[in-house]
Amino acid sequence: MFPDLTCDDIFRLETKRLWLRWPRACDAPAIKSFASLPETARMTAAIPHPYPPGEAERFIFRARADNANGEALVLAITQKNDARQGAAIGLVSATLSDAGELELGFVFAPCLWGKGYATEAVRALVEALFALTKAGRILANVRAENPASRRVLEKCGFAYVDSGLDLLPARGGLHPCDRFELGRKSWAASRSSRRLPAMVHQAPDEMAAILALMPQTQA
Ligand SMILES: CC(C)(COP(=O)(O)OP(=O)(O)OC[C@H]1O[C@@H](n2cnc3c(N)ncnc32)[C@H](O)[C@@H]1OP(=O)(O)O)[C@@H](O)C(=O)NCCC(=O)NCCS
Fold this sequence. Notes:
Number of strands: 8
Number of helices: 8
Number of domains: 1
Order of helices and strands: EEHHHEEEHEHEEHHH
CATH class: Alpha Beta
CATH architecture: 3-Layer(aba) Sandwich
Bound molecules: coenzyme A
CATH topology: Aminopeptidase
Structural class: alpha+beta
Mean pLDDT: 91
Helix content: 25-40%
Strand content: 25-35%
Radius of gyration: 20 Å
């Protein structure tokens, strides 16, 4: 599902305020600092609580192996202008469901909630997934009691599908969840309705003048 491009640990995505890159061994303390908190873990399907010793290191090892094998795309988020020199503030992931569909996951450090970072990172990952894979849609599940996560998905164009009991392994058993999806057609439609770059808006005569100034391509 994932292309060669994302299977190399130099792969990264850039947004206005963030870098999204493969997790590294040196991210373990930062990841532990937010993943071990009850308020982050309890909303996720996979983060255990209490957070066992060595869990961040194991997570990073698994993420890098899955990324390298093309079975997932798990990225650590860092702020571009960060006094702590690139410390991870969150994680976003796309994994394959049992049915082979892309499923989105994300978690951020509580000290930075409410600043739009999750929305910015999820948008970037969604763009990359539709651009780099042939996936027809991306799925996401949120706990029914998780309005912040639902809001992030809505802001990124996801549509509510239905609700039901879903298995959250790290929470033990089935829990009420809301299911969301973003289809490729909806994604493409929302992209084409966004403001076009200035060059495309130039009047035809202005565009002809610009083209005349450009060096001619050699045959
Ligand atoms: C969900 C999570 C990633 C959001 O991170 P974030 O960086 O704060 O997200 P953003 O700032 O981009 O957007 C959050 C939105 O939720 C809204 N929100 C936050 N708490 C809310 C609440 N209790 N009720 C309704 N909306 C809420 C915010 O107002 C914001 O929406 P707005 O921009 O329209 O005001 C973060 O809370 C988190 O890590 N939670 C724990 C893990 C988790 O839930 N992961 C998702 C599993 S599916």
